[in-house]
Amino acid sequence: MTGLTSAMIAYDFDTDQPHRAIQPLFYGYIKDGRHQRGRTFLLMTMISTLHNLSRSLGYAILAVIDLNLALRFFVGEVVAYLLYKLFRRDFYYWVRLEGILNVLMAFFERTLVKVITDFTVSASMRSVRKRVWGQSLIHNLHSTRAGLYPLPSPVRARRGSVLREYDLGANYALRRTFVLRGRK
Amino acid sequence: MKEVVITLTTVDTMTDIFMIYLYKENGLHSNANTMIAMISLNTFIQLLIVLAVYKKKGWRALLKEWLITVIFLRPFVDAWRVHNKHKDSETMIDPLAEMVMNKGIELATESIPGCVLQCYVLLLNPSLGSSR
Q: Do A8 and B107 touch (CB under 8 A)?
């Protein structure tokens, strides 16, 4: 359902004439024609669904290992993205409000779009005006496969029967490398 | 195609409610409560969006839109308005933008965290939902 919703957003934006008129270089990736549209929609749904499943499973495995670790990982990703936006002076959203409301609105919108794009690769949120794509591409492609990579690790010893089959070697390595650096 | 999508997005809430029931039945109360919290957060943010979009139309219209949100008919109504090219000069944004905004909120606060939660619960309770 998540993939379907994401594909529907992208489809509606792309087939909307005003959007195509404003950004002709980006919109128009869905070809005109009944069959082409249906096929593209189906493929977008499948890509979003499979990507969402892959990433959700990666996060779930991380959460089974250590719930706090999964939360820290999520917060780390979002903070890195927001810092990147601040660094590029591209943090504020186009809806202009006054004072703190402007910051809250921008924070809210950026976080939401980041979550949706990371989990569903929604095409409409990767347009030239949004510039979300890329920041966590390596993590997106890496997380689940890394989580399932069969390496022996000390984590295995203290896990239940479910995870014995998968193992968590690479996520454990990630944890050792990035998250727990400095801790003895 | 549109009709199928409209129907599917509307029954999404029913599957969520069934999930909560399933978790409660199996004694996974904290997970069921997390799911309820996600749905509540989604509804709360959508109510705020309705307030921002429809405040110029008066209390009666606002209450009607709030009611649509609370009884989980928002995806259906939004999709229906976009499909019929509904025009309203008193609202802040057009129906397509409103639908995308509501869908985005639903994805980020309910669907995606719900998917992670379900994977998490299934990893911890592999027999959940099976007859064995």
A: no
**Phi and psi for A95 in degrees, rounded to 5?**
-75, 115
Shortest Cα–Cα distance, B49 to chain A (Å): 12
Rounded CA separation B91/B95 (Å): 9
Which residue of chain A has the CA closest to B15? A1
- pLDDT tens for B3-48 read 666 666 667 778 888 888 888 888 888 888 998 999 999 899 888 8
- Give the total residue count for chain A: 184
Tell me whether residue A66 is exposed, middle or buried, using C-beta atoms within 10 angstroms of its C-beta: 0 to 12, 13 to 18, 19 or more. Answer: middle
Q: Which of A27, A66, A57 shows the shortest CA–CA distance to A172? A: A66
**Rounded-to-integer distance, Cα B68 and Cα B74, Å:** 6
Query: Residue type for A23, please?
Result: Q
Interface test with A, best of B44, B84, B93, B100 (most A CBs within 10 A): B100
Cβ proximity of B104 and A9 under 8 Å:
yes
Do the chains contact at B115 and A53, CB–CB below 8 Å?
yes
Contact A56/B9, CB-based, under 8 Å? Answer: no
Asked if ipTM goes beyond 0.85, one says no
